[in-house]
Amino acid sequence: MKTSSAIETLKNPTPQDFFVIDIDSTLVSTHQRNQVILTAFIDQHKDLYPTDCEILAKVKCQEGDYGLSSGLERVGFDETRPESKKSLDEFWRKHFFSNLYLSADQPTGGAIEWVESLQKKNVPYVFLTARHKATMWDGTLSSLTALGFKISPETLILKEDLRIADEDFKSQAMQKIVQQQESKNIWFIDNEPVVLNRIAADHPSVNLVWFESTHSGRMSPPPGITSLQDFQFS
Question: Domains, the chain, ranges and CATH?
Fold first, then answer.
């Protein structure tokens, strides 16, 4: 489907459409979560790494940052501090993929209103995210609900096995969706080009939309697909 037609469908979807929507760096931005995790690390490690924590206190996580790496680079915090860097990496991974700080996430422009419009128009949708179900289910439901998203356990799919790569997990989940929703016009919105390329290869009938935000940088998105920077279609 051409970009102009795709945008028109996103603006005016019908119950014949079915939307599969990513969460992190798509529906919500995550640099705020990175900031509070970094602040918590500093508070808990300032006595152990006083000089390094003084440098870390200058980091301002920004929209478009992928994890903490960009913020660390901006203040000159590099691999010459292996002990504190290793501790920080471990602390970040443990807490980014947990319920604890999900409440720091903020919606991307127009996301809440767009999801609400899907519900009002009886357009079916699910949220498909590589968040880990065992450690992030409760926080995902509560934080997105608090922000104002129309979400329920029935509309939420999280990864159950962390050993599975995100692109494998999402492709497997999409296979089930395609089988269950074979009469629908299926749309998939995600920020990660690696995932989008995998879905394009495995499920060519699915309409792809790239949410153009931070991502791993390992691949470019499939050529010719629709891209968005927000969910404001007026």
Answer: 3-29+107-228 (3.40.50.1000), 31-102 (no CATH)
- DSSP secondary structure, the chain, as one string: --HHHHHHHHHS--TTEEEEE--BTTTEE-HHHHHHHHHHHHHHHTTTSHHHHHHHTT----TT--TTHHHHHHTT--TT-HHHHHHHHHHHHHHHTSSTTGGG-EEPTTHHHHHHHHHHTT--EEEEEEEEHHHHHHHHHHHHHHHT----GGGEEEES-TTS-HHHHHHHHHHHHHHHTTTSEEEEEES-HHHHHHHHHH-TTSEEEEE-S----SSPPPTT-EEES-S---
Q: What is the pTM of this model?
A: 0.94
Print pLDDT tens along the chain (234 aa). Answer: 446 789 999 999 999 999 999 999 999 999 999 999 999 999 999 999 999 999 999 999 999 999 999 999 999 997 678 899 999 999 999 999 999 999 999 999 999 999 999 999 999 999 999 999 999 999 999 999 999 999 999 999 999 998 999 999 999 999 999 999 989 999 999 999 999 999 999 999 999 999 999 999 999 999 999 999 999 986
